[in-house]
Specification:
Layout lengths: L7 H6 L3 H24 L7 H17 L23 E3 L9 E2 L2 H15 L9 E7 L2 E8 L2 E7 L5 E3 L2 H4 L15 E9 L2 H14 L7 H9 L4 H5 L4 E10 L7 H11 L8 E3 L2 H14 L7 E8 L2 H7 L9 E5 L4 E13 L5 E12 L2 E7 L3 H5 L19 E5 L7 E6 L23 E2 L8 E2 L6 H11 L12 H9 L6 H4 L2 H5 L14 H13 L2 E3 H7 L7 H11 L2 H10 L1 H18 L5 H16 L3 H12 L4 H13 L1 H12 L2 E3 L15 E5 L7 H10 L3 E3 L8 E4 L5 H9 L2 E3 L1 H10 L1
Helix pairs in contact: 2-3, 13-14, 18-19, 21-22, 21-23, 21-24, 23-24
């Protein structure tokens, strides 16, 4: 299947005339709908980037097939028709939109086109103003004899909405001007600052009212209220940047005209600059883009205008845009802002996820103040394989960072500007303990994420762990499902599994009784208490699975239960193996560090020496216990590490002990194997078995009362070796362990 064309222009180029006719009709419908949502309803349905892409595709199709241009072509329209509820105002001069440039080359083409149109050579002086493009709502203010007589929105460019009463409530809009022409239409943008937007949304939330997606929507919705008092209560601002009808010229240049508006009392943008070349225009664009998040209000690009008003007059207008101006848009999905803090969030599985707290900036039409930082490797500037990302640049608090957002994708930090890094910015130290419960946070080999080991006692994991505890394969308590667990946790009735078995003692009598709780009655409460009591007796494998220890699923729980038979035996072995588990993790981390360096013979020898040195200090009993756990077939080092870590956390272990006291843990019943020749023996299978699978061999051995281990040790009674047996056969010979082949094994269990 061919890939979809990458750009709007590519999509247009891929269509024939018949397809283009259909697509132009669809584009007219989509753009008209987007215009109405944005301009009339103040509730955009698509992003600015998607809107711009539709417009560009429409323009490209009309350029290829000019005879197919529709009467209702979006290229001939500005804004949207005025909404009902407001009186209509005809603009004395049309309020046009601006052509857009999306990259440096389009800006240079704009400058070159101006020179060609005016017949100016490459060396002839030509200046432009460059100012931030405010992301707000366009407004035209008409003054007669210095008095504000009318305010109107842009509407469709020819007819707008009369919002005079609302405009009078905005502090930045003067009611009277001194020294102004007899007729003066001042045009500009109504907007809302980031701080005011946040405060407004806070008030809206407190009232239970609708919140706004971004400051532009908030400003537009506030200005277009039918009740001016609502507008008065909203913190709107106004920047003046242009004019419409004039009875006398303001000045000879754009710069001087804006300066005169400033003297009349209007707010004008202090970041406007005069540029004398495309290079200077692009330099100011980069400067504004970098400062975007510090301005305190939303912008979505930079607007360039020919400075000489006489030249503006010569250049004139197209049907919907002036030839003498262009908007250089920022990439809709990208913005630069400051990283103010890095917080750690703990997920329901215990994963520690770093989150960037940012100075708010609007990206893709949404105010972004948080972004994911993925994991500790991403912060450090490397991938999970240790290879550099972002050219190896790490991320630090105080950094100036580029934020990326596309569609509904969670915002990400894409890049770092090292030239703006504060001198005192320190490398981020990722926590090794859980910020929620203080338990150790470990990162297993091959895992990109560090995880809290607190389990049941970690507040961030508690509800999900409790849901797992009562799940079907665990305690499966009738009447106590996920919904009830959530409610009881919210009410403070259940914080850990042991609380479930004290529920009747605490909430079966007295003022606060379960039967009086909404959705419960005496019968349903009694039924729940009875169901809980019934589960006080539980099998070892179900208990192990219910604890929700990472990597200890149903199969591992069953393997552990078969091997240890009792809770006491298992707990004692896990406790004994604790120091060996600590050594195993240290060795794992040391080996990982060594492997990240050059892999020569000397380095391999160093890895072995490092591992041996760490294990040398482990007591014999701890090592034996560790080998017993890791030797259980199907368990291995990962599960063993998870077990000793969970049992070794003081708070987690105390919670488990409180639970076990409430229970009768049924020993795992051994199969009836009084006549089995392998009952009670520890058997290891190695090599390739020819007449049965490894799983079949294991199941048969366990049915006959044998324990199946995955490794050879002094406790091994029998090694069954098929073709290809290697290190296990060698170790069995060293330890004097009896070794037989598959045929001998089959004869043994058959004859037995």
């Amino acid at each position: 299947m061919a890939a979809e064309p990458a750009t709007p222009e590519d999509r247009a180029a891929a269509l024939d005339a018949a397809e283009a006719r259909t697509r132009l009709a669809e584009l007219a419908r989509l753009i008209a709908r987007a215009n109405a949502a944005y301009h009339s309803e103040d509730a955009p349905e698509i992003t600015d980037a998607d809107y711009d892409a539709l417009k560009r595709e429409n323009a490209a199709l009309e350029a290829r097939f000019p005879d197919l241009k529709r009467a209702d072509s979006p290229s001939e329209q500005v804004g949207a028709a005025p909404a009902d509820g407001f009186a209509k105002v005809a603009h004395a001069q049309r309020m046009l939109s601006l052509a857009n440039a999306f990259d440096d080359s389009e800006l240079r083409d704009f400058v070159a086109g101006i020179r060609r149109y005016l017949g100016l050579g490459a060396d002839a002086p030509l200046a432009f103003t460059a100012e931030p493009k405010i992301d707000g709502l366009s407004l035209s203010l008409r003054y007669e004899d210095g008095k504000l007589v009318q305010a109107a929105t842009r509407g469709d460019g020819e007819v707008g909405e009369n919002v005079t009463a609302n405009a009078r409530t905005i502090a930045d809009i003067p009611h009277r001007l001194t020294g102004a022409p007899e007729v003066l239409e001042v045009r500009g943008e109504v907007y809302m600052s980031h701080a005011d937007f946040e405060e407004l949304n806070t008030r809206q939330t407190a009232r239970g009212s609708k919140t706004f997606a971004n400051p532009r929507n908030a400003a537009a919705g506030s200005l277009r209220q039918l009740d001016p008092e609502i507008t008065r209560a909203r913190p709107l601002k106004f920047f003046a940047y242009s004019w419409g009808e004039l009875s006398a010229p303001l000045a000879e240049t754009q710069v001087d005209a804006i300066d005169r508006l400033d003297r009349f009392g209007f707010q004008t943008n202090p970041h406007t600059r005069l540029c004398r070349s495309a290079d200077e225009m692009l330099e100011h664009y980069r400067h504004i883009e970098q400062r975007r998040a510090t301005l305190g209000y939303d912008i979505d690009g930079v607007v360039y205008k020919v400075n000489d008003l006489g030249l503006q007059g010569r250049l004139g207008m197209r049907s919907t845009t002036p030839r003498w101006a262009i908007a250089h848009k920022f990439p809709a999905e990208l913005a630069w802002t400051r990283l103010e803090a890095i917080d750690i969030q703990v997920g329901r599985t215990g994963a520690l996820s770093p989150v960037a707290r940012l100075a708010p900036v609007t990206v893709g039409g949404v105010v972004v103040s948080n972004a994911t930082l993925h994991n500790e490797d991403y912060i450090a500037g490397r991938d999970s394989n240790g290879q550099p990302i972002r050219d190896g640049k790490d991320i630090r608090v105080g950094d100036w960072v580029q934020v990326y957002r596309a569609g509904d994708v969670i915002p990400k930090v894409a890049d770092v500007d090292l030239t703006k890094r504060p001198d005192d910015a320190a490398p981020y130290a990722f926590p090794v303990t859980c910020p929620e419960c203080g338990s150790e946070a470990v990162r297993e080999e091959g895992d990109a994420v560090r995880r809290c080991t607190g389990g049941l006692v970690c507040p961030a994991q508690a509800v999900e762990k409790l849901k797992h505890f009562v799940s079907r394969a665990a305690f499966d308590i009738d009447g106590l499902g996920a919904k009830q667990v959530e409610q009881f946790y919210k009410d403070g009735w259940i914080r850990e599994p042991a609380d479930i078995f004290a529920l009747q003692d605490r909430y079966g009598a007295g003022l606060q009784q379960l039967k009086n709780k909404e959705g419960w009655g005496e019968k349903s409460a009694d039924n729940l208490f009875a169901a809980i009591a019934e589960k006080r007796s539980i099998s070892l494998k179900r208990l192990l699975f219910s604890l929700g220890i990472r990597h200890v699923g149903e199969v591992a729980s069953a393997d552990l239960a078969r091997h240890f038979a009792t809770w006491t035996a298992m707990a004692q072995t896990v406790d004994a193996a604790r120091s060996a588990g600590t050594a195993a993790r240290a060795a794992e981390e040391a080996v990982a560090t060594e492997r990240s360096r050059a892999a020569d013979e000397g380095r391999r020898a160093q890895i072995t020496a490092t591992r041996d040195a760490i294990w040398a200090d482990v007591p014999k009993e701890a090592r034996a216990a560790w080998e017993e756990i890791t030797g259980i077939d199907g368990i291995g080092g990962t599960v063993a590490m998870a077990l000793v870590t969970a049992f070794g956390q003081e708070a987690e272990r105390a919670s488990i002990d409180r639970l076990v006291v409430c229970l009768t843990v049924e020993p795992e019943e051994a199969p009836a194997t009084s006549d089995s020749p392998v009952a009670g023996k520890t058997v290891v299978f190695t090599g390739s078995l020819q007449k049965m699978t490894r799983a079949e061999a294991k199941a048969r051995a366990e049915a006959l009362g044998a324990k199946v281990s995955g490794s050879v040790s002094a406790k091994t009674d029998l090694l069954v070796a098929g073709p290809g047996a290697g290190s296990k056969a060698k170790k069995a010979a060293e330890l004097g362990v009896e070794t037989i082949d598959e045929d001998a094994w089959l004869a043994l269990i058959r004859d037995g």
